[in-house]
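Example complex used in Figure S2.
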Amino acid sequence: MTAEALRRRAFWQILLIAAGLLVLTVISAGSVYLVNKAREDSKWVLHTIEAESQINALLLEIRRAESSARGFLLTQGPDFQSEHEKAVAAIIPALDKLTRQIGDNPAQRDSIEKLSAAIETRLDQFSREMSFVKQGQFDRAIELVREAARGNTTTTITNQANAMIREEERLFRLRTANSDHSQTLAASMTGIGSGLVVLLAMISTWLVRRSARARDEAEARLRDANINLESVVDERTADLREANDEIQRFAYIVSHDLRSPLVNIMGFTSELEELGGDIFRRIGGLAHVSADGAPLAPAGPGEIALEGPDKQLQEDFSEALGFIKTSIAKMDRLISAILNLTREGRREFQPAKIDTTELIEAVVSTLAHQAAEAQAEIHLEPLPNVVSDRLALEQIFSNLIDNAIKYLKHGVPGEIRIRGRTKLGYAIFEISDNGRGIDPKDHQRIFDLFRRAGTQDKPGQGIGLAHVRALVRRLGGTMSVSSELNAGSTFTITLPIAWNVSNRNRDR
Amino acid sequence: MTQPVTIIMIEDDEGHARLIERNIRRSGVNNEIVSFANGTDAMQHLFGADGSGLVQKGNALLILLDLNLPDMTGIDILRQIKENKYLKASPVVVLTTTDDSQEIKRCYELGCNVYITKPVNYENFANAIRQLGLFFSVIQVPPAAP
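Predicted assembly (654 residues):
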């Protein structure tokens, strides 16, 4: 899985969540708005119904007033009079209430003005009618009733009221429709919104499942890669081990086979030396004879002194043989060194618990003589104990301390310090001196076989440090040097505190 | 019946063979020296055509053996000599350039009588061979099996 794909997936997830939130917000807002609208619509519907019933109530009161007036006219009964007065008293408040209720509608306002006028007229007629009846002028009262009937006041009232009722009914229909519409809208909005949310949730679930699957696949691939890596590492390690063994064998065979001709060279050089001695003795004998004229048996080897060019010849001969023998001796030392190194490389290491302080004290005591000669003091600080190969550690410390003593500055009392500490499962040892130091450009070179650095005033083959480093590596450690010319040197060795034989030794 | 000891020298390096022979002669040993430059010829001589070793029955031998031979290792020759009933009584002196302690130990385990490393220091070598000469003069070759 690439980083790009991961980023894209995360982007889609965020987008989905954002979309879901947006949909929810819109639905909520829409629902609130639509519910409010529906409530408003219902209110208006209710208002219409109220107005309609108010109109009817008004008409009823007018009819009541009319019929009670007629009753009074016919019977002059006080019941009818009080009935009429109650009805008339109710008409004006009812009319006022109606006027307030439909004040919002300009068309109705017009109608109500007409209605009001008609009602005023009618109420006036009623009051006159009632006063005529009370005064006993029944004819005039009847005349007034007829006049009222002719003037169509009642019809006008009825017509106006009916018109208003029709208008209110129209409004009722319209507002009911509006209300229905709002409610349908709210319902569908909620429905669609819920559907969208469900859809988004499904997409999100799908994405999460897909990502989980991708993660599982990636994990499986990682596991495979790990297993593969292990086998590759094993393979490489085996290759390296084989190469290392090959080098060991090569070094062993080469050094061994080089020795064989060297035995001959040395052997026959010695033979030649003897032959040379014989030859020069004879030359000396002959020279004697020719000089004295009397042959003399040589008294013994080496007793005849050669003279002049013969002597020169003998010296040249000895010199040549001398160089050959020195070179052979040197070559033999080098070959022996390689042999010893390869032998060390083949030696089985035995890990053991080692009291490092005791071990180094023993090493120091064997070097006490050299140290005293070089006027060097060796200080031992507390050292961590390790599990390692005893012989290898002895060789490491003995080489390093020996070097420190060997390469001190002339005329300066030596001070050699051995320090130790532990860090993360490793023991770190430092061997520092105040000696002549090593030029930084030679820091690598001093670890190479047969290479040395600085003034060559001490005997040595250039093997010690190469050997030490090989040992440290085999013990699973590392070593380094820090030094400046004329400023002393510090060799640092890092060894595992608990070296395990299975690390490297068993591989050989 | 006294029988002179024959020295069998198995050494592939002619120079080494010559130096050994010279030093043996210098130490005053005049026994017959038979030289072989490879293992096969030596084995042929020691064990005969049939490989039984019967040809050497009753012969007093001293074997100088180099471990590094072109066609086989001296260790093999040593083992076969020491396993053969006619030859196992003959003293074997192993001569080699190796001073490897493992190899020396192995040779002694197989029954080698003396082990001499050929040092480059000629004086040491010559001394070792001369001492070998002294050794020749004192060894008692066991009586040949009847």
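The CA atoms of residues 27 and 189 of chain A lie 7 Å apart. Chain A touches chain B through 18 residues (CB under 8 Å).
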